[in-house]
Structure formats: structure tokens, C-alpha cells
Amino acid sequence: MAKVESSFKNMVLTLFIITLVASMALGGIYTLTKEPIETAKKAAQEEAIRQVIPEFDALKESVVDPVDGSEPLVFNVGYKDGEKIGTAVLSYSNQGYDPTTIKVMVGFRPDGSIYNTAVVQQKETPGLGTKMELPSFRDQFKGKDPGKFDLRVANDGGDVDAITAATISSRAFCAAVRRAYQTYKNEWEDEK
Amino acid sequence: MNQWLNFTKGFIRENPVFTLLLGLCPALAVTSSAFNGLGMGIATTFVLMSSNMVVSVIKNYIPDKVRIPSFIVIIASFVTIVELVMQAYAPSLFKALGIFIPLIVVNCLVLGRAEGFASKNSFVSALIDGLGMGLGFTFALTLLGAIREMLGSGSLFGYTLVSGDMILVFILQPGAFIVLGYLVAMFNKIKKSA
Amino acid sequence: MNDVLIFSVISLSAIGIVAAIVLYGVAQKFKVIEDPRIDEVEDALPAANCGGCGFAGCRNFAEALVDSATQHENIDDFFCPVGGTDTMNAVAEILGLSVEEKDPQIAVVRCNGSRQNAPQKIVYDGPATCAFAHNLFAGESGCPYGCLGLGDCVAACDFDAIHMNAETGLPEVNDKCVACGACVKACPRDIIELRPKGKKDRRIFVSCINEEKGGPARKNCKVACIGCGKCVKVCPFDAITLENNLAYIDPEKCKLCRKCVPVCPTDAIHEVNFPPRKPKPEKKEDGEKRGQPAQKKEAAEKQEAGKKNEAGKKNEAGKKNEAGESDKTNNE
Amino acid sequence: MEYFVIIISAIFVSNIVLAQFLGICPFLGVSNKVDTAVGMSFAVLFVMTLATLVTWLIYHYVLAPFQITFLQTISFILVIASLVQMVEIILKKISPPLYQALGIYLPLITTNCAVMGVALLTIGKDFNFLEAIVFAISNAIGFGLAMTLFAGLREHLDLMEVPAGMRGVPIALVTAGILAMAFMGFTGLV
Amino acid sequence: MGGVHPPENKISAGQKIIALDPPEQALILLNQNLGAPSKPLVKKGDEVKAGQLIARGEAFISSNIHSSVSGKVLKIDSVMDASGYKRPAVIIQVKGDEWEESIDRSKGVVKQISLSQKEIIEKIKENGIVGLGGATFPSHVKLMVPEGKKAEVLLVNGVECEPYLTSDHQLMLSKGEELLVGTSVLMKGLGVDKAYIGIENNKPDAIGHLSELCRQYKGIQVVPLKVKYPQGGEKQLIKAITNREVPSGKLPVEVGAVVNNVGTVFAVYEAVQKNKPLFERVVTVTGKSVKKPSNFLARIGTPVSMLIDQAGGLPENAGKIISGGPMMGKALLSVDTPVVKGTSGILIIDEAHARRVPLMPCIRCGRCVDVCPMGLEPILLAQLSEHEMWDKAEDQKIMDCIECGSCHYTCPAGRPLLDYVRLGKNKVGQRIRNRGK
Amino acid sequence: MNTLTISGSPHVHGDDSVKKIMYGVVYALIPAILVSVYFFGLGAVRVLLVSSIACMFFEWIIQKYIIKGPPTINDGSALVAGVLLAFNVPANMPSWILIIGAFVTIAIAKMSFGGLGKNPFNPALVGRIFLLISFPVQMTSWPKPSALFAGDALTDTVTGPTPLGLLKEELGKGRTVPEIMQEMPGYVNELLGNQGGCIGEVSAAALILGALYMLIRRIITWHTPVAYLGTVFVFTGILYFMDPLQYVNPLFHLVTGGLMLGVFFMATDMVTTPVSRRGMWIFGAGAGILTVIIRIWGGYPEGVAFAILIMNAFTPLINRGFKPKRFGEKVADA
Ligand SMILES: Cc1cc2nc3c(=O)[nH]c(=O)nc-3n(C[C@H](O)[C@H](O)[C@H](O)COP(=O)(O)O)c2cc1C
Ligand SMILES: Cc1cc2nc3c(=O)[nH]c(=O)nc-3n(C[C@H](O)[C@H](O)[C@H](O)COP(=O)(O)O)c2cc1C
Ligand SMILES: Cc1cc2nc3c(=O)[nH]c(=O)nc-3n(C[C@H](O)[C@H](O)[C@H](O)COP(=O)(O)O)c2cc1C
Ligand SMILES: Cc1cc2nc3c(=O)[nH]c(=O)nc-3n(C[C@H](O)[C@H](O)[C@H](O)CO)c2cc1C
Ligand code: SF4
Ligand code: SF4
Ligand code: SF4
Ligand code: SF4
Ligand code: FES
Asked: Does F173 reach chain A within 8 Å, measured CB to CB?
């Protein structure tokens, strides 16, 4: 079969057709996958929220500026039968070992104590900082009232046992939780 | 060409990673575990195969001067498809592979096969070539991932084999280079003796 | 149709078309005249621009290929890992380098000064390179023409075709030789010569390049060509010339009749891959200085026997060696 | 200070080649000689800055407003590819010496993860325009640093009798591994 | 910069120069100078006298050769030179010891310099004087300063930094007066009014003797020098005395200096003042196991074996025979080779020390770099040469190497650095010459 | 007559050899070995033995079965690497990890490149960094030094921080230098070796003693050490001068951590450092600057090992860029 000649018209036309087809195909696929992607994202978020506050049947999202004036945090208040049963605060810290921001979901009971924590994003060193995802570390926070439980690693004079050889990551984790707590407390006191 | 040979060449003789040294960035970056390697391999295989097929079909309708841009667009489209699909159905893997999914588009292997093979061969050959090369790539990434995972965290595909301290370097960047170095040496040797 | 689709189509097509038009315009405006073969070669390359060839991209590689083809008429040092041999053949074709078949040649080592034939008198203690030793001194045997045995030729061969024989200390060529001539160039003493492979792989040549007079030559090596001229006289085809005390057999003229081989008083002429010879009773008296024709014949026979054993496969030098050894025991 | 962090981080701490694994192909392919490596580095510096600049604009003024960011990959590669080709053609015409010094590396750069990778990372990190450019330049410098060091090491190894099995790429990779290990000393600097 | 301190081992230092009888047969090689070989003027059967011109140097850089003995020309044939290669030579069967009449054989020192500058150069050329410091460069060429350059100072090289060798030392002690006259002759030939005689501090007697004598000679001064090898290298000597560095690839005249060995100066004295061609020279025969280490005045063409016999015979345990000193000399293939104009000594090394030290991988200690008097990187040059990277070797100034051997001497790994550098110099030199064509 | 030998000039050779140099380094290490045994007891002995035996074993087996060359373990370089690797780990390092370190040192960092003289990176340091990255816990828990005769020598379970680690940690908590210095062992102890740390690095005095020996025997030259120490001293001195509350006295930097070990035994490893004097100056200064940067602003409390390794990578470029002064390069005015 003879090849198409490289004339200006042919070139532009070919490119045009190819980009046209490509963009249409992509647009189509995008529309198709848009839904699932959203769902997947939501699911991931909900999954984290579900971990850190008790069973709920409704969620209310709000954005709150933390006390220290840094980036706003996302609050998700969970309701069961119309009653508020917990608040999931998506907090973060930039003091991790890796420059990537560590994102931590912290769930508070209405009384201000921590229900549970979950790591949403981190890029710490595998085998060291990544241990923050393990229950063995996070369980320390379960049920603790930050009012009485010093949210700092033991090295810094707090009550948290750091992960061995990953004090930095532990410290960053604690900082995120502290930020969540302080913002939450602020909100919570405001509510009162 | 013997299609069986065409299919199998990607494994050892012309393994894209170990002997042709193409697509090394993903090969090094995402292979901190066997599973990631496998995922990346499959994604690349899909793009490779699909673009090979499309290129072999339309090869005669494309003027020479815009050949490369056209191929790039075709490849990029498939890459975007992979991106979207993965985001929808395998979000955690997508997250783990990071920017290396969109970077499939610049993987020399993909463009190289499209240009060097698919644009000159029949649909079937191109498909088999794409599949073979893709699987060779997948094989390489999985092997690399498996070794690094085993040495670095004592597990394989996430199953813990050895507990306790492992040699952390292997799942970090230096480990990637070093393991690949010795694997390339090994493949050179195999290729020579074969 | 939804918005997304429309926007996608519009933007992407726009980018595509703008890119095409701009590129076309720029290409026209900034045209540079170059060797058109560069474009052709570039087209033949995979355009993967991977750098695997060691060049900065396919075009750069194409330029290097065209350059090499123009200057050296070969592109053997280049390889594209993506395209492989097929691509390289295609490139060679574009550049008109499909070499027409020549008379197949092979490298022959024109020295038989093995450890036995040319015993070591001096110890050389230095880097194992012929090039250096050649500049330094005449050689461990004292023969200033002979093989130094340090294997520059072996190192030069890319085809695994030439190896040192540990026993004789001489290089031997095997049938992997492609007559590239690398060893010829590497040898500082011009010992190696490319000669036609010959009918049925048979060839006859003088395995010595010593230009000294008979006496001094024989002092260092038993199998040196002493320039006696007997072979010249006996050759019916005028294939042998004698210059500077050294006989040379012109491969074009030589008809492989083998007459010269037995008359050589020092066994300097080699025959390769011939069937064993029937003992010839009427052999002429030879060796004015040696005067030991009987032994000479014996040696020749042994040599042939050796050849037979090795089924004519192995190299000349190795075979000759046995003859040399018997010579030695008789001589000294 | 923000810019300082970006610079140090891109050059040393998360070096684009040794820590991010971008642009490995030219890192291994064109690092035989120091001179080539330096030439390549400058070409990368030029293209990376230009490409990041253009893709940043495209992203923020075309893709984002129309909410078609999923076309990021395809539009970026198109833009980068034509940009590089354009620069190459122009350079060849207006300054042959510069073309000899930089231009010959340009095609190689098109299909090199580093340029595309930096363009994508810039978007991922939400940099503003100036930050994006600083980021691109720093990464290019990081690339150049790793490349030049590596080329020096390889030239050195070329003069050594490396065991047959390891010669060439294998030993280069092991060397790169050790180099990456040494660069881990910079962790925590920012 | 650079340099090493090998043990001096000047065991023949106290031995007075003994004049040897002519040999039975003299083998006079036709190429005894750097540059083109000389054309023979005699043929088989000719009768010759000592001092008779038997070969003429026709090329610009070439020199005349004179018979060193009297007798009959046996043949013109090839003779084994030091490295075992056959070279053309005139072989003379010695009969008696009859010299050309024109030679002034009287004992006294002729101090009066009667010839003009031009005549001096002509005389030197006629009498076949070449540099006796090792390079055998025709001396008259050195005196013809190229257009546009100007010689300012003459340096007389009495350093003798090579271990073992003592011929120059003895010459300075026994022929001081002649040397100074010779220096004056050369100063006149060059048209300079300053000359320095450089002598290493390890020869205080020579320094004292010559300093004493040179008071009577205008413009000549003795300069004691630090003991260090290769202090006697031309460029090093110029640097040490004048503090000027000859630029890479340039001749000493570039910085206004001309260097001559004391042996050469003595030969010039004899040629110009006594009309005696260069046909004999002082040769040190030495070695740890040599019975009578000596300094001989030997005829050119004397077989080395005869010198060794005169020094008590070849020791049982001889493992290596070197023509010249241990640092720069050439190992001999056989003792049958004759003395040539460039033979400064015969050194016999025991078997135990004949072989090189075991070879180890280079540990990049940089000592070779430290000691290289030319500021080169011997290890790099050797590696480039080993890998046949000639272009780079040229860039790295491989041609500047003066082949002093300090690098190999000092290398703890025993790398044959100079061997490879020499190989590289050869190849690079060829390439440069080809380029010129 | 004997068979004559022919070789190119020179025909005599100096009396130094690679073997003498390597064993010279071993002798120079003896004072530090003794101090380490004194302070860390049997732990130090075990670490030293395991490391050097493992290194020599790997060298031997790889040379014999993989490279198939003449044996090289006698040249002493494997022993040097082994001892230096041991010097770079704490006394309580588990043997199996140490063996991995020895393998990395010899197999990866040395023999892969062809053995002695070919490796661009310092093998022992590659081993150390490899272990530091792979086993941060084990590599950073330091047994407290306790003099051999002080009674509790064998109950070495007490761990404590190194001065540099302590400094970095406490500074991180916002305390000032003078406060922290109260808890330090003091300069005399630090000089003698009574401080936490790897077994070989604790005693600056013993290391200097060894270095003097090497200097006298001309195994090393003074250029790199002077450049290195000088740079560290000046750089930290400037910082100290600017803010003595934040930055510690330069003397502290000199006697703590692995500086002396690195300066005298690792930055001087000729294989992996520049060959020319000019190059040595650059190498030393570069390593000094990097050491200080990593110590003060980096994530690791100690930066000597990384600094030297990074400078190793620069060595080929330094060799390329800083040539010795060529004779005749610049005509001196007469
Ligand atoms: C390669 C490597 C990766 C590391 N990754 C982390 C990490 O992810 N998180 C962390 O807190 N410390 C990490 N560290 C250790 C820190 O540098 C530091 O030693 C540690 O945080 C100090 O904590 P410790 O007091 O618990 O020993 C890493 C160390 C190395 C060598
Ligand atoms: C080709 C050539 C030309 C030379 N021309 C001159 C010259 O014109 N004037 C001069 O003084 N020396 C000349 N020389 C002599 C050298 O400067 C030098 O004295 C000689 O090579 C011996 O030095 P050496 O014993 O240190 O090796 C020349 C040497 C060579 C090789
Ligand atoms: C390394 C080296 C060492 C030398 N040592 C001496 C020496 O000790 N004495 C000497 O007269 N010439 C020595 N020479 C030769 C001089 O460089 C130079 O060629 C000579 O003095 C010139 O004088 P000539 O032409 O009269 O021989 C040495 C040359 C070299 C390269
Ligand atoms: C002064 C000196 C210092 C050395 N330092 C080291 C060292 O730090 N690490 C090491 O592995 N080997 C060292 N060696 C030994 C040897 O040079 C080293 O193993 C080589 O790098 C191996 O090729 C040293 C040798 C000398 C002479
Ligand atoms: S180098 Fe070439 S000619 Fe010589 S033996 Fe090898 S293949 Fe034959
Ligand atoms: S044939 Fe020539 S190159 Fe080969 S070993 Fe003999 S001398 Fe050397
Ligand atoms: S002296 Fe020897 S070991 Fe040292 S650098 Fe030079 S060649 Fe290498
Ligand atoms: S390189 Fe040449 S000049 Fe330098 S030390 Fe070696 S032999 Fe002497
Ligand atoms: S795969 Fe990254 S540059 Fe080739």
C-alpha cells in the first residue's frame, strides 16, 4: 500500500484526526470513569473516617481554620440517629522524615477524647517511619484524653513512645494529632 | 517471523530492562515491592500492546513527517486510559505508582516498539511483539521487585517470609540500582552462555 | 455530548494543530541543508531516542553513522539496541555498505619460532605487550623478526579467532577468523598476513619473515628461512620470489602443488590441511650446512602424521611444533 | 527561604536521578564522557525550564479552567515534544555551534522522564509560577550534578580492569547505587 | 619539583681513569648519534688509522664517525646493537695503534683559543662530536642557534645524577683544566660570556677542584646542586641554575640556555685544541659483584665483553647487563655489542636484583605524580597508553616525559609506568609525525 | 652464564611496596584498637575479629572462585578494610549484621570493581553507610564506654548517646549549647576515648598517634588531613563566633564523632582520593565543608562518612580538573 505523502495538508489533517479521535475517546472514558473515581476517592476518605469514629449514618463536612493559622483542616462530624457521635479531623504535618506531607485522620469523641487515628498519606522510609501505620503505634492514642495525655514523644517530654529509630516520624505524627486536637478543642469550645 | 520466538524474545534475549536497558526509571522507581512491579508491568504491557496494535493498523495512513507526533498521541491516549481506569478501580496501586503511570508515555520502550516494530509489521506480529515485550518488562519489574522486597522487608507480595530486621537499603533507592546492576550482569552471562 | 467532551476535543485538537502548524512553519523557515542520507538513516532508526547507542539521540547517531560510512566505509562499531541487527543492516544498505563477497581470506602467522625451534636465550621482564617489547629488544630467542609471543594480536581480535598456544608460545588462528585484519595491524613485526583461504581450505606459505642471512638466522631459530632459493628453483609456477634472503609464495600464483615443501632444508614452508604425503624416495640431497637429509625427511613425516591426527583442523603452528621437537633432539 | 528549600531539596536531598529515578536512560546512556554529560546537562537545563514554564501555563490557563486536567499527560507530552523539536530546528539554523553543543541532545530529552516528570511534579506540588521555574532549574542542576559526577566515575572506571562480567552497565549501576547511598547523607538538610 | 633519591652506589668513584688498549677487532656502528645514520666512506680491505674519517654524517642532524683503531677493514656488515637488532657497522681488524698525524698527542693543555666562532663549530662537526650525556645529539647542531633565538648562557652538566656512574666525576677530577678550556671554547662557539658548571653536592672534591681552577677563567662559575635524581636532566638543570622553565615541546634555547655534558666539553676541547676526533670515551664498568669497578678510557667499537674482562670478568651471578646507569640505561642482550659514543657505563646487576619487584595493582597513591620531574601524571599516561587512548595521552603531555624512570622507581606497586609511557610516546610521536605529512 | 634479563629502564626500584603500606596502616591502627578494647572490652574484640575475618574470607573466596585471579588476601588491604569497618560500628553490633557489612565492603564495594585499586568508593565506608541505612537501630545504639578495669566491663548493656547525637537531639528540643555541654564527657575524655561511639572513633589521641606513625613512614601525606581538619575548624569556628548558643566550640567538633578516624584513615585512602597535591587540598576542603553541613543542618548527627563518600564521587572530576603543575607550564621570570 502506498504511504500517504507528507504534504502540509496531509500532515495537519492527520494530526487533527488523530487528536480528535484521541480526545473523543479520552473524553468518553473520562466521563465513564468519573463516577467510579469519585466513588473511590470518597470511599477512601470514608474508610478512614469510619476507622476513627464510631458507627455513623450521616456525615457533615466543614472546613475549619486551625488556631495556629496554618492550612485549614477538614472536619467530618458523624451522626447516628441524628445525634453527634464523633468528629473526624483530617490533620497534617510537614515535619516528617520525607518532605511529603503526612496526613492523619484523627477521630474525637464528643467528650474530646481520641477515638482512633488513621494515616491517610505518608511517604516515610519503609520499615521505619511507615510503622506509624501499624496499630502498635497508633493504639497508644486510643481513648486518650489529650487534656491529660501529653501528645508529645517521650524524648520531648511527652507521653508517646516513639517508634524505634523513627523519632522524627513519630514526632510529626504527634504534631498532626496535636494540631487536630487544638483546632477541635477550639471549635468545640466555640460550640459551647 | 516465527511468532513464538517473537513472543519469547522479550524475556531473556531482548529483555527490555535487563538487556536493552529501556524504561529503567519505572524499573527502578516502583519496584520496592513485587506487587508494585507487577502492577506497573501490566499497565505498561497494556499500553504497549494497544499502541502497537493501533500503530500497525494505521501505519500506512500517516505521513512520515508527523509519524512520531501521531504515535505519541496514540500512546498518550492509552496511558491516560490506564490512568483513569486505575484511579477508578485500583486507587491504592495508582497512588503507589505515582507519576510513573503518566510517565509510561515517555518510556522509550513503548515508543521504540511502536516506531521500530509496529510501524513496519503486521497487526498480529505487532500484537505479539507488544505482548511479549510487555510481559518481558513485567517479568523484569516483578523479579526486581521480588528480590528487593525479599531482601529489604523480608516479604513477598506482601506476605511476610522472614520477620525481624531486614536490609532496609534494598527497598530504598540505592538498593534499586545495586540489585539491577547485578541482575544485568547475570542476564549478560545467561545471554552469553545461551 | 457533555462539556468535558467538547472542551477536550477543542483543546486537544487545538494543541495538536497549533503544534503541527508551528512545527511545519519553523521547519520550512529554518531549513538547513544536510547530507540527505542522514534523514534516510534516521528514518531507518527506531526514533526511540533512548541513547542506548551511546549517542545523544537517533539523529546524532544517524549523523555518526553517515560520517563513519563516508570516512571509514564501515559502521561496524555502531549498534542500535532497540532496532537490532535488522535495523543495522537496513542502515548499511542505505549507506551502500553491503560488502560484495571477496575471496575468503584468513590470517596466517608467518613465524614458527616456537619455544622449541627458537629456544629462549633471554628473559624479558616487562609488560606483556609485543608493541613495547618490539621497541625494547630483539626478542627472547634473539630473532629480531620472530614472534614475541606476548599476544597483541590475540588482544586485538574481536572474534575469538586467535589464541596463544601455551606450549609453543605462538599464536594460532582458528576458523572463526573473519579476516578483519585487526591482528595484522596489531602485530608490530608484521608477522601476520591475510591470505586466501585456498581451495578446500588448503594453503602453502613460508612461515618465516627473517631477512637475515642463513647463518645468523639459523643461530636463533632452527626453522628460519635461510634464503637458499631451493624452493624458488623447484616451483613450476614461478610463484616463489626470493628477496632479502627471504622466500615469499605468491598465493595468487601458487597452485598448491606442494613441491616446495620437502625441498626446504629448514622446514620453513608450511602446508595446511593437506592429506598426508606418500614418502618420496628420490628426495634430493639438501642442506649444505646441515647435511642430514635423512633426519629432515623423518621430521617431515612426523609432521604429516601429526597433521592427520588432528584431522587437519588445528592450526599450522601447532602441528609444525612436533616436527620442530624431533628436530631439536636430533640436532643439538 | 522557601526557594532555598526548593533548591537544596531538588539538587541534593531528593536528587532527580538518584532519589526520584527520573531520567535514568540518559543518565546511563550519555554518561560515558564528562564532556558529553556536561553538554547534556545544559540541554536539559534549557528544555526543562522551558517545558515546565509552558506546561505550567497550559495547565493553569487551559486544563484547569476547563476542568479537563485528565488531559494533562497527553497535552504535556505533545507540548514538550513539539517544543523540543522546534528549539532544535531553530537552534540548528541560527547557531550551529550551540546546536553542536546542546542541540544534539535535544531529541534524547523528549523521551526522557526527567522533563515530563518535573512538569508533572510541578503541578502535583501546586507550585506558583516562580516556584515552578525555580523547581525546574534546580532539578536540572541536580540532574547535571549527578550526571557529571557519574560520568567522571565512569571515565575513571574505563581505565580500570573491571571484571568481565561486571564491565559496562552492571558496574555503572552499582556505582550509581553507591552514589545514591552517599547522597542519602543529605537527608534532613531541609 | 619531583625527583627521587635512589641509593648512589658510586663504588667506582675513587678509581682513576685507565686507558685501555685497542681491542683485537673494533665494531664501529654507523649510527652513533641521535638522528640519521652516517654514510660509510671505506670499503672492505681498506687500511685505516685511528682518527681517520670512515663515515660522514650527511643529514642535518647526523655526525661524522672516525676509526678508533688502526688496521684493516674486514667488512661492512651488520652487528648486533644493544637491543639485539642488527645494524650496519664497519668492522676493523686491529693492527698496531697508529694515529692520524694531524692529532696533537702532546700532554700539555693548550689554552690559547685561536679559532673563530665559525671555525669552532666546523671543527666540532668535522670531529664527530656528539653529546656524551646520553642523548648523543650532534653537538655542532646545538651550537647553531636558530634564527630569532639567542643563547645567553652555557650550562656544563657535571651532575652525574645516575647512581653507580662515575665517569664524569673522574673526568672532572683528572681533566679539570681541559674542561675549563673546553668550556671557554664552547662559550666562544656559542657567543656567550657566561657559563655555569652544575655539580651535585655529593661530589665535593670535584666542586672544590673546579671552583679552584675556574678563578682563572672569565665567566665560568661552578654551581653546587642539591642531590636528587634527575638533577642532571637538561630541563631540570636549567631550572636549578637559571630558574627558568623550558616550555613544553620547546628547546632549551627558548630560555637562552645550551647544556653540554662534561664529557662532551672534554671532547670539544680535544677536537678544537688538539684536533682529535671523538673516538674514545670514559666508560665506567661497575656493579656490586664486579671485582674491579673501574673507569676506563675505551675506544669506540670495543666489545663490551672486553671492558668487563678488564674489570675482573663477568661475575658468576650476573643477571642483567646495562649500558648506562640503572635509571636510564639499556639492558644488553649480549656482551658482544660494542661501545658506542653514548656508552657512559656498563653496569652489571646480580641475578637477585635483575628481576623487577612483583607487580601489584596500582593503588593510586600518587607517588609517581609526586616524583615526576615534569609534573606529569605517569599513572594516567600509562593507563591511557595501555588503553590506546592516544589523543588523550597527547593532551596530557605524554611527549614531555623525559623518560627518567622516577615514576617506575618509586611506585610501590611496581607498575611498569615508564614502559607504557614510552610505548605511548612512540605511538603519539608517530601520530604527530603523520599529521605533519 | 646465567640467562640475562631484559627490561626497560629503570633497573632499580625503591623499597616500598603495597604490602608494606597496607601493613603499615594496620600497625598505625593498633593504638586505636587497644583503646577500643580498653573501653568496650570483649565486644570490641568480637567486632574486630568478626569483621576482619569476614572481610578476608570474602576477598579470598571471590578472588579465587569468581575473579579467578592470583590470591590477593596477603596484600593486607582486606585486613585494613576489615579493621576499619569494625572501627565504624558500635561494640554491640550483632555479628550477622557485621558479616553483611563485610560482604558489602568486599563484594560490592571492592571486588565488583576488580579488587584493590579499582574501587572508586572507600569500601569500609560503603559498608558503614550501607549498615547505617539498613540497620539504623543497631547502628545507633551505643554501649557506654567503661574502662576495662572499672568493674562493670562485661555488663555492657548500658547504652548512651554519642556526644554529637546528644548535641543534635538536645538542640532539637530548643536548648542552648552551653546547657548541653554540661552533660558532655568533657574534652579530655573525648580526646582519650571515654565517650560513646563506634569502637574505633572514640579516641582522637590514639588515632593521632597512628597518624603520626603513618606520616613518618610516609604512608600518607599531610595535605588532605590538614585541609580537612582546617576546613572543619574554620567553618565551625565562624559559626561559633557568630552564635555560641546555637553552635558548639570548634574543638568539640574535632574530638568527637568519627572525624579523626575519617581524616587520617579514610580521607587518606589513596585508592579513592585524588592523586595530586592540589587535588588533595580540594578533597580535604570539600569533605570538611560537607561534614560540617551534615553535622549541623543535616538529618544525621555525624557526617564524616557521607562527606568522604561524596567526595570520593568527586575524585575523578578533581583528578581531571586539578592537574599537578606541569613543568614549563608558566615560564618563571629569571
Ligand atoms: C535511610 C534512613 C531512613 C530513615 N527514615 C526515617 C523515617 O522515615 N522516620 C524517622 O523518624 N527516622 C528515619 N530515619 C532515622 C533518623 O535519621 C534518625 O536516626 C531517627 O529518627 C532518630 O530517632 P531515634 O532517636 O528514635 O533513634 C532514617 C534513617 C535512615 C538512615
Ligand atoms: C629534533 C631535535 C632538534 C634539536 N635541535 C636543537 C637545536 O637546534 N639547538 C639545541 O641547542 N639543541 C637542539 N636539540 C637538542 C636537545 O635540546 C637536547 O639537548 C638533546 O635532545 C639531548 O638532551 P637529553 O640528553 O636531555 O635528552 C635538538 C634535539 C632534537 C631531538
Ligand atoms: C633523566 C635524565 C637525567 C640526566 N642526567 C644527566 C647527568 O647526570 N649528567 C649529564 O651530563 N647529562 C644528563 N642527562 C642528559 C642531559 O639532559 C642533557 O642531554 C645533556 O646534559 C646535554 O649535554 P650533551 O648534549 O653534551 O650530552 C640526563 C638526561 C635525562 C633525561
Ligand atoms: C592510608 C590508607 C587508608 C586506607 N583507608 C581505607 C579505608 O578507609 N577503607 C578501606 O576499605 N580501605 C582502606 N585502605 C585499604 C585499601 O586502600 C582499600 O581497601 C582500597 O580501597 C581497596 O581497593 C586504606 C589504605 C591506606 C594505605
Ligand atoms: S583479528 Fe581478524 S584477521 Fe586476525 S585472527 Fe582475529 S578475525 Fe582473523
Ligand atoms: S604474532 Fe606479532 S602480535 Fe602476535 S604475539 Fe607474535 S609478535 Fe605479538
Ligand atoms: S606510584 Fe604506582 S601505585 Fe602509586 S599511583 Fe603511581 S602507579 Fe599507582
Ligand atoms: S612520566 Fe616520564 S618524566 Fe615523569 S617520572 Fe615518569 S619517566 Fe620521569
Ligand atoms: S525510562 Fe526514564 S529516561 Fe528512560
From this structure: yes
Pair (E61, E155) in one structural domain:
no
Q: Which of E218, E239, E274 is the last residue of a domain?
A: E274
In a domain, E11, yes or no: no
A165 shares contact with chain B (CB less than 8 Å): no
Select the more confidently predicted residue: A1 or E148. Answer: E148
| Separation of alpha carbons C161 and C179, rounded Å | 10
Spatial strand order of the sheet with E25-29 comes to: E25-29, E86-94, E71-80, E47-48
Q: Tell me the whole-structure pTM to 2 decimals.
A: 0.87
Ligand at minimal distance from the CA of E230 is 3
The reply to whether D25 falls in a domain is: no
* Closest-approach residue (CA) in chain E for C130: E423
**Of C122, C132, C136, which has the smallest distance from its Cβ to F4's Cβ?**
C122
Q: Which of C149, C247, C157, C252 is nearest to C198 (CA)?
A: C252
Domain carrying residue C265: 105-272
| Same domain membership, residue C51 and residue C193 | no
Residues C202 and C90 placed together within one structural domain of the fold: no
Contact F158, F296 (CB under 8 A): no
Which ligand is nearest to the Cα of residue F165, counting in written order? 1
Q: What is the mean pLDDT of chain F?
A: 89
CATH number at residue C48: 1.10.15
Q: Is C9 on the interface with A (CB under 8 A)?
A: yes
CATH number of the domain residue E30 falls in = 2.40.50.100
Please count the structural domains in chain E: 3
CATH code, domain with C151:
3.30.70.20
Instruction: Confirm if B75 and B81 have CB atoms less than 8 A apart.
Output: no
Q: Give the domain extent around E161.
A: 117-274
CB atoms D70 and A23 under 8 Å: no
Bridge partner residues of A62 (DSSP): A75
| C126/C185 same-domain check | yes
In which band, very low, low, confident or very high, does the pLDDT at C170 lie, cut at 50, 70 and 90? very high
Domain, as residue range, for D41: 31-183
Ranges of residues in chain E with a pLDDT under 50 are: none
Domain ranges of chain B: 2-189
Instruction: Tell me whether residues E331 and F270 touch, CB distance under 8 A.
Output: no
Number of domains in chain C: 2
Residue A4 has pLDDT above 70, yes or no: no
Q: Is residue D9 part of a domain?
A: no
Domain residue limits, chain A: 47-191
Residue C329 lies in a domain: no
D chain contacts of residue F279, beta-carbon cutoff 8 Å: none
The ipTM (two decimal places) reads: 0.86
Residue F10: closest C-alpha in chain C: C126
Least CB–CB distance from D176: residue in B77, B177, B185: B177
Instruction: Say yes or no for a CB contact (<8 Å) between D173 and B83.
Output: no
Closest CA relative to residue E131, chosen from E41, E264, E235, E309: E264
Give the residue among C263, C313, C248 at the shortest CA–CA distance from C293: C263
C174 and C262 assigned to the same domain: yes
Based on the fold, state whether residues C82 and C208 are members of the same structural domain. Answer: no
Strands F4-6 and C122-124 turn out to be: parallel
Q: Supply F50's cell numbers.
A: 568478626
Task: Answer for the pair D74, B76: CB distance below 8 angstroms, yes or no.
Answer: yes
Segment 29-68 of chain A within 8 Å of chain D by CB: 30
Chain C: list its partners (3+ Cβ pairs within 8 Å): A, B, D, E, F
Residue D95's pLDDT band (boundaries 50, 70, 90)? Answer: confident
With vertex at residue F129, the alpha carbon angle to CA F125 and CA F130, rounded to the nearest 5 degrees, is 110
- Whether D23 has its CB under 8 Å from any CB of chain B: the answer is yes
Residue D37 resides in a domain = yes
Three-class secondary structure of residue F234 per DSSP? helix
Tell me, yes or no, whether E137 and E202 share the same domain. yes
Q: Is the backbone of residue F257 left (phi > 0), alpha (psi -120 to 50) or beta? A: left
Contact C126 F7 (CB under 8 A): yes
